[in-house]
Amino acid sequence: MDIWKHQELPIIESHDFNFFRCLEFNNSYYGKTVSELHSGNLRLSKKDNRYSNLFPGQKLSYWADSPQTARAEIKKWGSGNNILTFWAYDDGSSFIPTIYPAENIRIIDGVHFGFDKILKKVGNHEELTRSEKEFIDKIGREKPDCLAYYSEAKVGGICFLFFEQGFKKLSLREVTLRLGDYKGKNTAKVTCAVTSDFSPVLEGYGYYFSPIAKTKYDDKYITSDEYIVRKQVEDYSHEQIAEMMR
What we know:
The chain has 246 residues and is an alpha+beta fold. Helices cover 25% and strands 30% of the residues. A seven-stranded mixed beta sheet has the order 1-2-7-8-9-5-4. A four-stranded antiparallel beta sheet has the order 3-6-10-11. Strands 12-13 form a two-stranded antiparallel ribbon.
């Protein structure tokens, strides 16, 4: 793994990451394609958001380093047993990227530089020191993709707070639904990439969940702008690979 470190700030630029996000599933998610569900993972920072004072006016998305950490995070905030799990990766690390240009992820390394302490103070509505505020502004000017910090819900777990530009670098590997409150067949899965090289399965974004734990396909997805653009980049990636093999 190639890693580039910022000379002054705790920022790492690298690739080959896996990210996980869990949501408590509710019936309003039925009928929404995986594409729509994933788009909903990016939300505007509002006053009721615990980090809104830190990143005002930003669209944010919360992810974790493992399904276990992601589940622990939502359980901490009172989630039930019906859970939707997103497994994403940085598209630039795929053998066949579908987002152009293929770029590394720029991560604020808050794990080893104590940034989690600042986040905890903000979450507890404690006043930040002047130097802490200046440090945050300096990071903001660097326009990172996300910041990493220790999870408060799982010992040793790592969480990632994505900004909009970083979120747009993510592609999905799979989305899993588990309805823990139901007996019998209570799980379903949609695949959006396969193999260790994350080869894309773009049609996967067009699937949706239906009661109780089933999947169906929306034929209109392949006419969407998202599919058309990703398909163009996928074809371009194949052309680049073919040229290198000549």
